[in-house]
Amino acid sequence: MERSNDNLNEPDEVFTVTLSNPVNATINPEGGIGEVIITDTWQTSLTRTLPNNVENLRLISSNNVNGTGNAGNNKITGNSGNNQINGANGADILTGGLGADTFIFQFGQSTISTRYRITDFAINSDKIDLLTQGGTATSAPSNFSRAANSTATTLQNLVNQVFTDANGAITGNQELAVNSAALVQVTTSAIAGTYLVINDSTAGFQSSNDLLINITGFTGTLPALGSIPGGNFFI
């Protein structure tokens, strides 16, 4: 299969390789045949949006450029500059790299069923910029708090708990209001990690619209239970 000078961005390609006539080696009769899968990664020093059927985008150089995913499950990696990264649709994995990066989230995309993960969110440096479900700019959450640590074993139970009580520093339930966000850590192994739960302008949990973002792997100091300045995480 000819692969030289191929710089086109394409879907995964699969082909079979058969090994024969080895020199100074022995091939197991049951082996010698393998499957090779080529997964394309688009590397660019410019602002780019992934074309259809290309999975991964890597921003290179130190330019302040931006990367946007497609409808697939993408991995988007920033460079050492200040990047804007938007996974678009799909269950995406986002890495900002060095620099003060902005992760763009549109209501209806990183939901409980297709949640994104930010692998290296830098508290007080990186920021989250929210868009409406229609893709227009919207303000940062009017209220932001850290909920009590959770022992939920499913994401559905976790979200239900946070919507019931979003502030772990106040006795009694403090429901997650409209246009509000909560930070929560889960300690049980099934879904252990750190999450952001963000309610849109409609009261109550809307599974097709409200955001659930996994920020496990964050750097910096996690805020204490209770109210958090929104500017620490959002713009």
Automatic annotation (TrEMBL):
It holds the Pfam family HemolysinCabind. Signal peptide: none annotated. InterPro entries: Bluetail_dom, CalX-like_sf, Hemolysn_Ca-bd, Serralysin-like_metalloprot_C. GO terms for molecular function: calcium ion binding. NCBIfam families: bluetail. It comes from the Bacteria. This is Putative calcium binding hemolysin protein.
